[in-house]
Write a structure and sequence with these properties.
CATH topology of chain A: Alpha-Beta Plaits
Strand content of chain A: 25-35%
Order of helices and strands of chain B: EHEHEHEHEHEHHEHHHEE
Oligomer: heterodimer
Largest sheet of chain A: 4 strands, antiparallel
Distance between the termini of chain B: 39 Å
Structural class of chain B: alpha/beta
Helix content of chain A: 25-40%
Order of helices and strands of chain A: EHEEHEEEH
Distance between the termini of chain A: 43 Å
Strand content of chain B: 15-25%
Radius of gyration of chain B: 18 Å
CATH superfamily of chain A: Ribonuclease P, Pop5 subunit
Shape of chain A: globular
CATH architecture of chain A: 2-Layer Sandwich
Number of strands of chain A: 6
């Protein structure tokens, strides 16, 4: 059987409000279901890895084939539990180890100046 | 080669410096290196300079832009004659077919914008694309309505955009994706916008070009045209006088 390749996505929630992990995940699932329907959502293999409520950062896991799909859905989030919020992708990696290393060196995932 | 990401449509009120600073700062933070802010006809030179200074502080390149809303093609040509050399970018919001056709064939127009959500009022069809392909106009797509709308209106808009992008691709009309953001909550990273563009049929590379190469090329070309000594593309005056 072919091995499923996965990607880990580091996320940063940009909002003045604080959200729980459940509220955040509900918003992500709702965004995916709105854009791609329940069938599309079922193909993403989305799973929460970690959530830091204080720093408003999260790590999700998805399959490589649906990475762009998940990224688009995350970009479409404008509200979480009715409060204005944006979710930015800070880093993407094939292993949790390298994702965490990237987050340490560049926590906001900003572009390095040329 | 590293891409220079650009957002050619930031809706900033030039009188509200605090909001302008916040929005420009956020754009720089998200990885944009070039932004354009549309001004109105009444905008004074001082306001433009103020925004230019804010961009300089945020270490982001700034391009001046004007959006024209003409009702007839004569009005469009009159406005272009008057304003083309004052702004680095000229966008035309096409509200009727006559204006859309004139804008597509006029080489002074940089960006064609169709803001209506009604598919009957979006005039980017084959004829429009053919005219645009022989001039220098690019199709501009604002991403903001896709974030704001929900349900059937968003479905209809996505369907229109998919059709327009496929026509643009066929006629080699460059596509430009802008945020159209008026507050920081509507700003996204360029790569997120590129991922979102997959919803209306742009491949990853084409979408990245739409937020980097295509807008940068237009600004570079216009700056060259507006610079002193420009004669024609590739020809410029390097020295004047009797000893030439």
């Amino acid at each position: 059987m072919k091995r499923i390749k996965r990607r880990y996505i580091g996320l940063l929630i940009d909002s003045d409000s604080v959200f729980t992990e459940r509220e955040f995940l509900d918003a992500v699932w709702a965004a995916i279901a709105r854009l791609y329907g329940e069938y599309g959502a079922s193909q993403t293999g989305l799973a929460p890895i970690s959530f830091d409520e204080a720093n408003k950062v999260a790590i999700l896991r998805t399959s490589l084939g649906t990475l762009q799909l998940v990224r688009a859905a995350i970009a479409s989030i404008t509200r979480i539990t009715g409060k204005a919020a944006t979710v930015h992708v800070t880093s993407i990696s094939g292993t949790l180890k390298s994702l965490r290393e990237k987050n340490v060196t560049n926590p906001q995932g900003h572009q390095k100046k040329a | 080669m590293k891409r220079t990401f650009a957002d050619l449509h930031l809706r900033v009120n030039s009188n509200d410096t605090a909001v302008a600073q916040e929005l420009i700062g956020k754009a720089a933070e998200l990885g944009y290196r070039l932004i354009a802010i549309p001004f109105s006809l009444e905008t004074r030179e001082t306001e433009t300079e103020k925004l230019r200074a804010v961009c300089l502080d945020a270490k982001i390149d700034f391009a001046s832009r004007i959006d024209l809303y003409p009702k007839t093609k004569d009005q469009l040509t009159h406005l272009l004659r008057k304003l083309r050399r004052r702004f680095e970018l000229v966008g035309v919001v096409c509200e009727n077919k006559e204006v859309a056709r004139q804008a597509a064939k006029d080489r002074r127009v940089d960006l064609l914008s169709f803001q209506s959500l009604d598919y009957r009022s979006r005039f980017f069809d084959w004829a429009e694309a053919e005219l645009a392909s022989s001039s220098l106009a690019a199709l501009e797509i604002d991403i903001k309505p896709l974030f704001v709308l929900e349900g059937p209106p968003r479905v209809r808009l996505l369907s229109c955009l998919r059709r327009e992008v496929s026509i643009a691709k066929e006629f080699h009309v460059p596509v430009i994706i802008s945020s159209g953001a008026s507050n920081r909550q509507l700003l996204r990273k360029p790569r997120e916008i590129a991922a979102f563009a997959s919803l209306f049929g742009l491949s990853e590379v084409t979408a990245l070009d739409a937020v980097s190469t295509n807008p940068s090329t237009i600004v570079r070309r216009n700056r060259e045209k507006l610079s002193q000594g420009f004669v024609a593309p590739g020809i410029r005056v390097v020295k004047e006088g009797r000893d030439c």
